[in-house]
Design goal:
alpha/beta, Aminopeptidase, nine-stranded mixed sheet, globular
Length: 312
Protein backbone atom coordinates (compact mmCIF):
# COMPACT_ATOMS: atom_id res chain seq x y z
CA UNK A 1 0.00 0.00 0.00
CA UNK A 2 2.80 2.42 0.90
CA UNK A 3 4.52 1.71 -2.43
CA UNK A 4 1.29 2.44 -4.33
CA UNK A 5 0.84 5.73 -2.50
CA UNK A 6 4.39 6.79 -3.34
CA UNK A 7 3.93 5.77 -6.97
CA UNK A 8 0.69 7.74 -7.27
CA UNK A 9 2.33 10.74 -5.63
CA UNK A 10 5.21 10.56 -8.10
CA UNK A 11 2.82 10.38 -11.07
CA UNK A 12 0.83 13.30 -9.70
CA UNK A 13 3.96 15.44 -9.39
CA UNK A 14 5.04 14.61 -12.95
CA UNK A 15 1.58 15.44 -14.31
CA UNK A 16 1.41 18.66 -12.34
CA UNK A 17 4.79 19.77 -13.64
CA UNK A 18 3.72 19.02 -17.20
CA UNK A 19 0.41 20.86 -16.87
CA UNK A 20 1.49 23.93 -14.97
CA UNK A 21 4.77 24.88 -16.54
CA UNK A 22 5.25 28.51 -17.49
CA UNK A 23 3.95 28.53 -21.04
CA UNK A 24 6.07 29.64 -23.97
CA UNK A 25 4.81 32.91 -25.44
CA UNK A 26 4.66 33.77 -29.16
CA UNK A 27 6.89 36.79 -28.64
CA UNK A 28 9.59 34.59 -27.08
CA UNK A 29 9.74 32.44 -30.21
CA UNK A 30 9.55 35.46 -32.49
CA UNK A 31 12.48 37.12 -30.72
CA UNK A 32 14.78 34.15 -31.40
CA UNK A 33 13.64 33.72 -35.00
CA UNK A 34 13.98 37.46 -35.59
CA UNK A 35 17.64 37.39 -34.63
CA UNK A 36 18.54 34.13 -36.36
CA UNK A 37 16.87 35.11 -39.63
CA UNK A 38 18.05 38.71 -39.68
CA UNK A 39 19.96 40.06 -42.67
CA UNK A 40 23.03 40.67 -40.51
CA UNK A 41 23.64 36.90 -40.35
CA UNK A 42 23.52 36.68 -44.16
CA UNK A 43 21.75 33.34 -44.28
CA UNK A 44 23.90 31.44 -41.73
CA UNK A 45 25.83 29.40 -44.27
CA UNK A 46 28.18 26.82 -42.74
CA UNK A 47 31.63 28.20 -41.76
CA UNK A 48 30.60 31.84 -42.30
CA UNK A 49 30.74 34.64 -39.77
CA UNK A 50 26.94 34.74 -39.78
CA UNK A 51 26.73 31.13 -38.67
CA UNK A 52 29.27 31.77 -35.90
CA UNK A 53 27.21 34.71 -34.65
CA UNK A 54 24.18 32.39 -34.59
CA UNK A 55 26.20 29.86 -32.57
CA UNK A 56 27.14 32.57 -30.07
CA UNK A 57 23.47 33.50 -29.77
CA UNK A 58 22.53 29.89 -29.01
CA UNK A 59 25.29 29.68 -26.42
CA UNK A 60 23.97 32.82 -24.72
CA UNK A 61 20.51 31.26 -24.56
CA UNK A 62 21.93 28.13 -22.92
CA UNK A 63 23.79 30.19 -20.33
CA UNK A 64 20.73 32.29 -19.53
CA UNK A 65 18.60 29.15 -19.10
CA UNK A 66 21.17 27.49 -16.84
CA UNK A 67 21.82 24.71 -19.37
CA UNK A 68 25.34 23.35 -18.91
CA UNK A 69 27.75 22.46 -21.73
CA UNK A 70 27.77 18.75 -22.56
CA UNK A 71 31.47 18.76 -23.40
CA UNK A 72 34.11 21.03 -21.87
CA UNK A 73 32.61 23.98 -23.75
CA UNK A 74 29.31 24.58 -25.52
CA UNK A 75 31.03 24.57 -28.90
CA UNK A 76 31.86 21.16 -30.34
CA UNK A 77 33.80 21.66 -33.56
CA UNK A 78 34.10 19.15 -36.38
CA UNK A 79 35.63 18.94 -39.83
CA UNK A 80 33.97 17.11 -42.69
CA UNK A 81 34.14 17.35 -46.49
CA UNK A 82 36.35 20.41 -46.24
CA UNK A 83 34.01 22.25 -43.88
CA UNK A 84 34.82 23.22 -40.31
CA UNK A 85 31.57 23.54 -38.43
CA UNK A 86 30.46 24.05 -34.85
CA UNK A 87 27.68 22.17 -33.12
CA UNK A 88 26.36 23.87 -29.99
CA UNK A 89 25.65 21.22 -27.37
CA UNK A 90 24.04 21.68 -23.97
CA UNK A 91 23.14 19.31 -21.14
CA UNK A 92 20.39 19.03 -18.55
CA UNK A 93 21.35 16.25 -16.16
CA UNK A 94 18.66 13.83 -15.07
CA UNK A 95 17.51 13.69 -11.47
CA UNK A 96 17.17 9.91 -11.10
CA UNK A 97 20.33 8.02 -10.04
CA UNK A 98 19.68 5.28 -12.61
CA UNK A 99 17.59 6.85 -15.35
CA UNK A 100 19.96 9.80 -15.72
CA UNK A 101 22.29 7.43 -17.57
CA UNK A 102 19.70 7.31 -20.37
CA UNK A 103 19.65 10.24 -22.79
CA UNK A 104 16.88 12.06 -24.63
CA UNK A 105 18.33 14.24 -27.38
CA UNK A 106 16.58 17.36 -28.67
CA UNK A 107 18.03 18.78 -31.84
CA UNK A 108 17.68 21.15 -34.78
CA UNK A 109 20.03 22.57 -37.38
CA UNK A 110 20.77 26.27 -37.14
CA UNK A 111 22.66 26.70 -40.42
CA UNK A 112 21.08 27.67 -43.73
CA UNK A 113 22.18 28.13 -47.35
CA UNK A 114 23.52 31.70 -47.16
CA UNK A 115 22.69 33.51 -50.39
CA UNK A 116 19.98 32.60 -52.88
CA UNK A 117 18.65 33.72 -56.24
CA UNK A 118 17.97 37.45 -56.17
CA UNK A 119 14.36 38.58 -55.89
CA UNK A 120 13.69 42.35 -55.98
CA UNK A 121 17.29 43.13 -54.99
CA UNK A 122 17.21 40.66 -52.08
CA UNK A 123 19.68 37.76 -52.28
CA UNK A 124 19.89 36.77 -48.60
CA UNK A 125 18.22 33.41 -47.89
CA UNK A 126 17.24 34.18 -44.30
CA UNK A 127 15.92 30.70 -43.48
CA UNK A 128 13.22 31.77 -41.03
CA UNK A 129 11.24 28.54 -41.37
CA UNK A 130 14.29 26.51 -42.44
CA UNK A 131 15.42 26.32 -39.73
CA UNK A 132 15.36 29.29 -37.41
CA UNK A 133 11.89 28.01 -36.47
CA UNK A 134 13.23 24.63 -35.37
CA UNK A 135 16.16 26.19 -33.56
CA UNK A 136 13.93 28.65 -31.69
CA UNK A 137 11.56 25.82 -30.77
CA UNK A 138 14.34 23.67 -29.31
CA UNK A 139 15.71 26.61 -27.35
CA UNK A 140 12.26 27.36 -25.91
CA UNK A 141 11.59 23.72 -25.01
CA UNK A 142 15.04 23.28 -23.46
CA UNK A 143 14.66 26.44 -21.39
CA UNK A 144 11.30 25.21 -20.10
CA UNK A 145 12.67 21.76 -19.23
CA UNK A 146 15.68 23.28 -17.48
CA UNK A 147 13.38 25.53 -15.46
CA UNK A 148 11.14 22.61 -14.49
CA UNK A 149 14.12 20.49 -13.44
CA UNK A 150 12.00 17.33 -13.20
CA UNK A 151 13.62 15.23 -15.94
CA UNK A 152 14.68 11.84 -14.60
CA UNK A 153 16.56 11.07 -17.80
CA UNK A 154 19.35 13.34 -18.95
CA UNK A 155 18.71 15.67 -21.89
CA UNK A 156 21.26 16.61 -24.53
CA UNK A 157 20.31 19.74 -26.48
CA UNK A 158 22.13 19.94 -29.80
CA UNK A 159 21.96 22.64 -32.44
CA UNK A 160 23.69 21.41 -35.57
CA UNK A 161 25.89 23.08 -38.14
CA UNK A 162 26.26 21.80 -41.69
CA UNK A 163 22.85 20.21 -42.23
CA UNK A 164 22.51 21.97 -45.56
CA UNK A 165 25.89 20.53 -46.63
CA UNK A 166 24.76 16.94 -46.04
CA UNK A 167 23.89 16.49 -42.34
CA UNK A 168 27.54 17.09 -41.49
CA UNK A 169 27.13 18.32 -37.92
CA UNK A 170 24.70 15.63 -36.83
CA UNK A 171 26.82 12.92 -38.45
CA UNK A 172 29.85 14.14 -36.51
CA UNK A 173 28.02 14.39 -33.19
CA UNK A 174 26.21 11.07 -33.53
CA UNK A 175 29.48 9.26 -34.22
CA UNK A 176 31.16 11.02 -31.29
CA UNK A 177 28.36 10.11 -28.88
CA UNK A 178 28.31 6.54 -30.19
CA UNK A 179 32.04 6.25 -29.51
CA UNK A 180 31.29 7.33 -25.92
CA UNK A 181 28.74 4.52 -25.70
CA UNK A 182 25.95 6.74 -24.40
CA UNK A 183 22.57 5.13 -23.80
CA UNK A 184 20.48 7.12 -26.27
CA UNK A 185 16.77 6.53 -25.65
CA UNK A 186 15.29 8.69 -28.40
CA UNK A 187 16.15 11.67 -30.58
CA UNK A 188 13.61 14.39 -31.40
CA UNK A 189 14.64 16.69 -34.23
CA UNK A 190 12.76 19.92 -35.05
CA UNK A 191 12.61 21.13 -38.64
CA UNK A 192 10.45 23.78 -40.32
CA UNK A 193 7.79 24.11 -37.66
CA UNK A 194 6.77 27.71 -38.36
CA UNK A 195 3.65 27.36 -40.54
CA UNK A 196 0.44 25.41 -39.88
CA UNK A 197 -1.24 22.93 -42.17
CA UNK A 198 -4.70 23.54 -43.55
CA UNK A 199 -7.34 20.87 -44.06
CA UNK A 200 -5.56 18.20 -42.03
CA UNK A 201 -6.71 16.44 -38.89
CA UNK A 202 -3.33 16.85 -37.18
CA UNK A 203 -1.03 19.76 -36.39
CA UNK A 204 2.43 18.22 -36.81
CA UNK A 205 3.89 15.08 -38.31
CA UNK A 206 6.94 13.00 -37.57
CA UNK A 207 9.08 11.59 -40.33
CA UNK A 208 9.29 7.81 -40.35
CA UNK A 209 6.05 7.59 -38.38
CA UNK A 210 5.65 3.91 -39.21
CA UNK A 211 9.10 2.96 -37.86
CA UNK A 212 8.31 3.41 -34.16
CA UNK A 213 5.49 4.13 -31.73
CA UNK A 214 6.71 7.69 -31.02
CA UNK A 215 3.76 9.33 -32.78
CA UNK A 216 1.23 7.23 -30.91
CA UNK A 217 2.99 7.82 -27.61
CA UNK A 218 3.19 11.58 -28.11
CA UNK A 219 -0.54 11.65 -28.79
CA UNK A 220 -1.16 9.53 -25.71
CA UNK A 221 1.17 11.57 -23.49
CA UNK A 222 -0.40 14.86 -24.61
CA UNK A 223 -3.96 13.49 -24.58
CA UNK A 224 -4.41 14.75 -28.13
CA UNK A 225 -4.26 13.79 -31.79
CA UNK A 226 -1.79 16.50 -32.69
CA UNK A 227 0.75 14.15 -34.35
CA UNK A 228 -0.09 12.55 -37.68
CA UNK A 229 1.35 10.90 -40.77
CA UNK A 230 2.34 12.94 -43.82
CA UNK A 231 2.05 10.92 -47.02
CA UNK A 232 4.15 13.57 -48.76
CA UNK A 233 6.96 13.14 -46.22
CA UNK A 234 6.77 9.40 -46.70
CA UNK A 235 6.76 9.71 -50.51
CA UNK A 236 9.94 11.80 -50.51
CA UNK A 237 11.52 9.85 -47.63
CA UNK A 238 12.05 12.94 -45.50
CA UNK A 239 13.05 10.60 -42.68
CA UNK A 240 16.50 10.38 -44.30
CA UNK A 241 16.81 14.05 -45.18
CA UNK A 242 17.27 15.69 -41.79
CA UNK A 243 19.50 15.33 -38.76
CA UNK A 244 17.41 12.66 -37.05
CA UNK A 245 18.71 10.17 -39.60
CA UNK A 246 22.32 10.49 -38.44
CA UNK A 247 21.32 9.27 -34.98
CA UNK A 248 19.10 6.54 -36.33
CA UNK A 249 21.99 5.21 -38.41
CA UNK A 250 24.40 5.17 -35.48
CA UNK A 251 22.11 4.03 -32.66
CA UNK A 252 19.11 2.33 -34.32
CA UNK A 253 16.79 3.90 -31.75
CA UNK A 254 13.66 5.99 -32.37
CA UNK A 255 15.00 9.15 -34.03
CA UNK A 256 12.45 11.31 -35.82
CA UNK A 257 11.95 14.82 -37.13
CA UNK A 258 8.97 16.81 -35.87
CA UNK A 259 7.64 19.27 -38.44
CA UNK A 260 4.56 21.15 -39.57
CA UNK A 261 5.76 21.62 -43.13
CA UNK A 262 6.03 18.91 -45.79
CA UNK A 263 6.48 21.61 -48.50
CA UNK A 264 2.82 21.44 -49.55
CA UNK A 265 2.05 24.37 -47.23
CA UNK A 266 5.15 26.52 -47.76
CA UNK A 267 6.30 27.99 -51.07
CA UNK A 268 9.67 29.40 -50.01
CA UNK A 269 11.94 26.42 -49.33
CA UNK A 270 15.54 27.58 -49.97
CA UNK A 271 14.12 30.86 -51.24
CA UNK A 272 15.05 34.40 -50.26
CA UNK A 273 11.45 35.01 -49.20
CA UNK A 274 11.72 32.50 -46.35
CA UNK A 275 11.47 35.40 -43.94
CA UNK A 276 9.95 36.04 -40.54
CA UNK A 277 6.72 37.52 -41.90
CA UNK A 278 5.82 34.11 -43.36
CA UNK A 279 5.63 32.46 -39.92
CA UNK A 280 2.76 31.99 -37.48
CA UNK A 281 4.11 32.48 -33.97
CA UNK A 282 0.81 31.88 -32.20
CA UNK A 283 0.70 28.46 -33.87
CA UNK A 284 4.33 27.78 -32.95
CA UNK A 285 3.87 28.67 -29.28
CA UNK A 286 0.67 26.62 -29.08
CA UNK A 287 2.38 23.61 -30.65
CA UNK A 288 5.37 23.82 -28.34
CA UNK A 289 3.17 24.15 -25.26
CA UNK A 290 1.19 21.07 -26.28
CA UNK A 291 4.38 19.09 -26.93
CA UNK A 292 6.22 19.90 -23.71
CA UNK A 293 4.11 17.62 -21.45
CA UNK A 294 4.77 14.79 -23.90
CA UNK A 295 8.51 15.41 -23.79
CA UNK A 296 8.34 15.56 -19.99
CA UNK A 297 6.75 12.10 -20.06
CA UNK A 298 9.43 10.77 -22.40
CA UNK A 299 12.04 11.98 -19.92
CA UNK A 300 10.29 10.47 -16.90
CA UNK A 301 8.69 7.10 -17.65
CA UNK A 302 10.14 4.28 -15.59
CA UNK A 303 10.80 2.16 -18.69
CA UNK A 304 11.64 2.91 -22.31
CA UNK A 305 8.14 3.06 -23.72
CA UNK A 306 9.24 4.51 -27.09
CA UNK A 307 10.21 1.51 -29.21
CA UNK A 308 11.20 0.75 -32.79
CA UNK A 309 8.78 -1.26 -34.93
CA UNK A 310 11.25 -1.83 -37.77
CA UNK A 311 14.57 -0.77 -39.21
CA UNK A 312 15.04 1.22 -42.40
Amino acid sequence: MKFKILLLASLFIQTACAQYFEKVQPQDIRSSVDFLSSDILKGRETTTEGELVAAQFIKSKFIKAGIQPYFETYFDSFESKGFKGINVVGFIEGTDPELKNEVVLLGAHYDHIGMGDKVQNDSIANGANDNASGTASVLAIAECLARLGTNKRSIVVALFSGEEKGLLGSKALSKKLKSQNIDLYTMLNFEMIGVPFTNRDYEIFITGYELSNLGDKLNSYTNSSMVGISDVAKKYNLFKRSDNYSFYKEFKVPSHTISSCDLTNFDFYHHVDDEIDQLDFVFMASTINKLIPGIVQICNTDSKEIQMYATN
